[in-house]
Each structure stands twice: as structure tokens, then as C-alpha cells.
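hey so u asked for the seq, here:
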Amino acid sequence: MKEAGQLHLFEGYGVELEYMIVAGQNLAVLPVADRVLQAQAGALVNEVEVGPLCWSNELVQHVIELKTNGPAASLAGLAEQFQQGVAAINLLLKEQQGQLLPGAMHPWMDPQRETCLWPHGDSSIYAAYNRIFGCQGHGWSNVQSTHLNLPFQGDGEFGRLHAAIRLILPLLPALAASSPILDGRYNGLLDNRLRAYQQNQRKIPVITAALIPEPVYSRQGYQQQILQPIYQAIADYDHEAILQHEWLNSRGAIARFERDTIEIRLLDVQECPLADLAIIQLICAVLQALVAERWSSLAEQQSWDVSPLAKWLLAAIGDADRARIEDAAFLQLFGFPGQRASMGELWQHLAASLHPATGKPEGRALEVILNQGPLARRILRATGKSPTRRQLNETYAQLSACLANGELFHG
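ran it, C-alpha cells below
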């Protein structure tokens, strides 16, 4: 298998899924990620290779990440590999009376009281984040996401891929929103994770900006227009330059030139890996079509400023698939014939045009998402908009069972 830096467009895929660890009895936050990794590796480690996957720690002790062990040559079979990883971790968690919980936010976690940062090894990066921003908040300790990494070679491929990714970023919550409940209640947003993510570094706003990256299509331009302003802004708080690396950039998609990939960060994690991979397959099919200029030229794709894309993303954070786009020029970039559409209607059009994973488990999972709405909407269907703690317990216990069994949640 080639290293990421040797891969051309769509020759490899890096997928990362984050899950919260909770107590099996009452779904309370359970900070035992270190014990899981130690049980698997035989020693206290930050990361352990387990077949085609790696398991690793995150910022907090109650989250564990599963990721492809290097770039996968294909998306085919990844859902099964991740599901096997989930089963193995759940088996180890039984010894701790725990289990994995899917969804992008715990519905009633109190981050001020329950946050426990990863304390082991060289935790200087985590300590720096905590010192500057304070990590006892939902935006740091209660945000579980799916990351998709896609490779490129040189400025030509980077410019095409970055342009395509910028255009789909506002549309992603329409497929992937899974965080409608925060602090035990529904507050009118279907993607609270993205709202929390958007605000968690507001002390230095340039780090996150508007989540939509600027229209920059070369490595030099990216360094000058995005990375250098971030490094300059944090320098007064980060005298030892611990955080002045590409990953400090917290836009919704970030360039990782150290490995020649772009990492998409706007996807909430779903109820099971099958749902995540169904969404990822559709996203990749759309990106490939855009890069190939199937519906619109590269010049048209690269011409879009941040402002309209950021406006639509904010709408999607609130209403996901029902958020509306009333801009024919934008819709035409995707071959949509109308003057206006909901984001759900646009995704229906794209799925019908591209037929990703038709007839396969991922295709059937995608049908559920497109026809019944993103997971956030299905959760609300189950809990109602004024849920009791009992209703939340029952619904999220069902979600944990969906994760354990690799099944879609229908609400």
C-alpha cells in the first residue's frame, strides 16, 4: 500500500470514527479509554494497531477513536472492518461495565463536571489547548465526529479537490447531523456538535474562521492566507510553538501538506459504521464527479466565496436536510435543474445521478438516511422535542444497541 503522500486523487481513503465510552447501566460518561488501549496492547499506549485499523486516544478519557491503519485502497469492506473493531472494544469494555455510545454528542453530559483529559505520555498538546481555551466544555469534551482524509498530488490536484470539497461542506449536516440533544433538551438545532465546534476556539477566531475554507488553490497560497495568520494569532499564547502545526487549523476541511491530504471534519459520527460509510461513499462519488467537471467547470467551482457557503452551512446546522438553497447558480454546479431546493432534495438528486453502492448494504443504509432524514431527525422522532430523561435513556440505549449490532436506527 502506498503512503498517503504518494497517492493521487481517490487512490486512497483515510476514515476515522470517534465514539464516547459510557457505563452500560445508565449511559453515564465513563473515562476508561486508557484501560481499553492497555488491555489491547498489553501496555499503556496512545495508539495500538489492530489488523486493518488503529485504535487511539483522543483529548479526553471517555472517547476512543478507530481509524484506518494508513490509507485504505478502497471504501469497500471498511464498514465491516470498523464494525469488528466496535465489537472488540465493546468486549473489552464489558470488564469495565461499559460500552460505546454513538452519535456526535452525549445528550446530558455535564462537561464542567465530567471532563477528564488524557493524562498519559506527552500530553503537552492537550495541556496547551486546555491552558489557552479551557477544554471543560461541550466543544472540546463532547464532540464525536467522523473524519474523511482524501489524497492529492501537487497543486493541480489540490486545487481541484479543495474546490470540490468547499462546495459540499455546507451540505454535509443534511446527511450527517446526529446531535439534536444537548444538556438534556432540544434547542432547535439538529447539529449541536458543529455549533459547539464552531465556538470552541472563539478566543482566537481565525483558527476556525467561518468553517468554510477560503478559496485558496495552491500550497503557497494556503500557507500565506490561512496557516500563517493562524500561527501569528496564537503566538502570544503559545510561546513554545507547541500548537503551530497544520492541525491547529480548525476549518471544516483542512489541508495536511505533511501527508498531502485534505481532511473533512464536518461529519457527525452515526449510529453504526455502515451508516458512516454509506454517507462517505456518496460524498466521494459527488467529489469525483465535481473533480471530473461532470456538471460544472473547475473555474466555476473555484469562483465561490466563503460568504454564501457559510450562510448555507449555518442553515444546515439548524435544520439539516430541510435547510433550503435558493440559488440556481449554486444548484447548477451539481446538475440540479431547479431554481431552489432543500438540501435533502439536492442529496436525493445526487444519489439518483451517481448510484453509489446500489443494492449493497451501504446503498440500503443511504436509502434510510435520504428517505427518513439524518440521524438527528430520527432521534427527535423517537424522543419528541421535549424529552424526559427516561425517554432519552431509552432512545440512546437503542442507539448503543444499533452500534453494537451494526444496524440503522429508524426512530
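The longest strand covers residues 14-23. The radius of gyration is 20 Å.
lmk if thats what u needed
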